[in-house]
Amino acid sequence: MIGSVISATLSQAEQDFAWAGSLEVTNPASFQRIRIDDPIDLELGGEMFKLMVDNKTLERDGVGMPRLTVSVVSPTARFVAPRAKPMDKTWDEPVWARDAAEEAVGEGIRWDLVNWLIPGGRLAVHEASPLDVVRTIVDAVGGLVESLPDGTLRVRHRFPVSVPGWATASVDHVLTDESDNLSCRESHVLRNRVNKVLVRGYLPSGDGFLSVEVDARPDGPNQGRTTFYSGDTANLLVHAGKEVSLADPLVSAGVIRPGPWQEMKVTQDVVFNGTATATLDKPASAIDSVIWIGNNLGPLSREADDRTLTVPNAGVAIARVTYRTRAKAWRLYAPPMVAGLDEFPVNVHFVGSTREILGSGEIYCQRGDGAFRGLDISDPLLTSDEAKRSRGRAEIDAGESLQEVSLSCLHRPGFMPGQLVEVHDALMGQSWRGKITSVSHSAAGAKLITSLELLRYVQSSV
Fold first, then answer.
1. Which of 100, 142, 147, 95 is nearest to 117 (CA)?
2. How do strand 308-333 and strand 255-279 relate by DSSP bridges?
3. What's the CA gap between 312 and 128, in Å, rounded?
4. Cβ–Cβ < 8 Å for 19, 149
5. Contact 8, 21 (CB under 8 A)
6. In this model, does residue 330 exceed pLDDT 80?
7. Residue of 210, 213, 255 lying closest to 237 (CA atoms)
8. How far is it, in rounded angstroms, from Cα 421 to Cα 462?
């Protein structure tokens, strides 16, 4: 269809979703017949690629032959703008991650990644392309989206083989100086080492919640009173988040003693300021009712910290939420006189310390001694331990001692990002293994060269 091809380039790197490149052709008549989105079958060194026309350009200088170039891309380009229509959708019922991703693109996906159940209301998109939906799901567990040569969309783990396993795993390709390698360039990059991360399946509301107030309930022990005199007993309520450990309070005068736990109902107007999250004033043990005053952003979900509320659709709205909360009661016994005064202030000091909670939507992922802790990871889609472990391993593998290597070699079929390669380097007198992060093919006539970007594991000295 496109006539004789005199040169071609084609490449795909991690974080890309498609093979992309260009073809230089010689037949002007065939070139004129080409239309955007036309399918193209391209054979490079015995490997077949399913592509489509992304663009075409004509460059003419004087009376010489024009230069005719056709830009090509994998058919997965149909899943992004401007070819794909933006979508608004909320998965109100529980859905498997793979099912949601395939529903978004309308076809099957090669799924080489953990598959987990996402609760109803957790996954919602607004003005998103189908590929945005897939990436949102896959990114949560440390995965990547790419295209296979046959045009199939594939998702996989960022490190299909964990870095410590590279030494013993089966490799996809073996390259030698004698028959393959043409050039090699190494660069040392300083990385922040990570061998321990905390992964949680919710968005935290803060560093820890603690509030103290006078019990002003009309039916409470103070009977609605908020002013007290010398010799009185004042009843206090202390609300603490589940991440807070409360120490015994200190008091400037009198005696304070603990009372029983109290459960009460609170009604609060929760404000969403163009977001999909909002925060309750107090930790909720249960939500009894929700009334949207105006815009309705969908069903509320209470996250594991008991204060963060999430909705499927970001927006500007107010929700009147009635919820139950628990508080620890304390009784302050004020003395009749202090320093000869029968009117005096009393200072009560409550101290709480945050603690790391396991079993409430959080897990630790650790390799070795765990001495190098990375940033905490929070994602509401991470609702199973298997999904959290997948994300944690991706972060720890990325935090290993990895060296970037650029390698050019004679073409061979089957190179893909994520594969393991064993390189025999005669000049350096050693062999080593690395993961492919980018593949680029370049053909000019009969000459076909492949350029690879790799990550090589270098044993850390710390």
1. 95
2. antiparallel
3. 13
4. yes
5. yes
6. yes
7. 213
8. 26
Q: Is the dihedral of CA 289, 293, 299, 305 positive or negative?
A: negative
Task: Give residue 221's region: left, alpha or beta (phi > 0; psi -120 to 50).
Answer: alpha
Whether the model clears a pTM of 0.85, i.e. scores above it, the answer is: no
Closest CA to 271 of 263, 283, 279: 279
Model confidence over 154-168: pLDDT tens digits? 999 999 999 999 999
Please tell me the distance from the alpha carbon of residue 22 to that of residue 35, in angstroms, as a whole number. 15
Token digits of residue 349:
């000091």
Measure the CA–CA gap between 155 and 118, rounded to whole angstroms: 17
Token pair of 402, please? 């990895």
Residue 366, CA distances (Å) to 80, 99, 358, 390, 394 in order: 36, 30, 14, 12, 11
Model pLDDT, residue 312: 79
Cα–Cα distances in angstroms (integers) from residue 336 to residues 94, 228, 230, 231, 343, in the given order? 61, 12, 5, 4, 9
Give per-residue pLDDT as tens, 42-77. Answer: 999 889 999 999 999 988 876 667 889 999 999 999
Q: Cα separations (Å) of 274 from 254, 269, 314, 335? A: 48, 16, 6, 51
pLDDT at residue 356 in the model: 46
Residue where the block lists tokens 């929070």: 378
